[in-house]
Amino acid sequence: MDAKFKPETLSKLPDAMQILRQAQISISDVDAAVEDWDKTFPEYAGLLSALPIRESQTLNAINGTKTGGD
Amino acid sequence: MAAQFTFDAKTQRFRYATGSFAGRFVSRADVQDLIEQRIKDTKKDIGTITDLLLQNKITTATWYDAMAEAVKKGQTQAYLAGKGGTYQFKSRDKGIIGKTLVDEYIYLRRFAQEIEDGKLSVKQIRDRASKYGDSFHKTYERGRAEAHRENGHYWERWVTAQDEKTCPDCVGYGLLSWQRIGSLPGIGTATACKMRCRCYKEYSNEFNKPNRSNFDSLLVTKNGWLR
Predict the structure, then answer these.
(1) Would you say B220 and B155 are in contact if contact means Cβ atoms under 8 Å apart?
(2) Would you tell me which residues 116-175 of chain B have a C-beta closer than 8 angstroms to some C-beta of chain A?
(3) Of B4, B5, B118, Cβ closest to residue A4
(4) Which of A9, A25, A41 is closest, CB to CB, to B97?
(5) Last residue of a domain, one of B136, B166, B182
(6) pTM
(7) Domain span holding position B42
(8) What is the mean pLDDT of each run of 10 residues along chain B (227 residues)?
(9) B102 and B161, same domain (yes or no)
(10) How far away is chain A from the Cα of B130, in angstroms, using its nearest Cα?
(11) Other C-beta atoms within 10 Å of A2: how many?
């Protein structure tokens, strides 16, 4: 049987309230996740912060029409 | 220059907005591959963090915090990728990720306590830690499900991954074909393969139950060949 691992220094683990607070998602968490994604996948940078497409662009894309500006 | 993207709520697909691929869709499979890469990266990070703990270079509390941070980042990214990005991210979505994280953190806290109490061997700690990150695919699929439901899709169909992880439960759900959206369980929630599940769902915005063969299913708006 494998020997058990025991940390040399004991530490205080979070309680239930701290866990609940840690699990909350803030705007800065979202921003950090997006920033990390952009760094990790440079070729897909901006994917998570994609803007909504306009309806006219959808139709143009489906019809194979080049989409220009306004 | 990095490619910029748009998200098309009608087809539920990302599209390249600039560069040589401008106007082209980013396939669901491509986004799923990125999530798989994220899972691998997170597992690597977790391995490094766990090594530090096992060398007594960090305390269990520090290890817990680092693990929790890696899981939060990965879960948020996976959900956003499924949902269609930050502009579609609402209060409800915060709640969904928050609930996922609470569940993960409770397991992680229990795991950390067992380490602190000296109940686990080095091998057990490594094995258990290596499973964190597996649930990102499940969260990605949850994001997709929410986005499709919000954007007028009425039907869903379970598509099995057809890999060695596909379990009999997944095959069974796959055989049910098209069902009302929300009728089938979430990916990775009610099957024997659990977090290892790599199946996905297809969605339809048809008013009546879709009744099409594999060939017909190619001719739908999401492939960009029909309006």
Answers:
(1) no
(2) 116, 118-125
(3) B118
(4) A25
(5) B136
(6) 0.87
(7) 5-13+25-136
(8) 80 91 91 95 96 97 97 96 93 96 97 97 95 93 96 94 84 93 94 91 92 54 50
(9) no
(10) 17
(11) 9
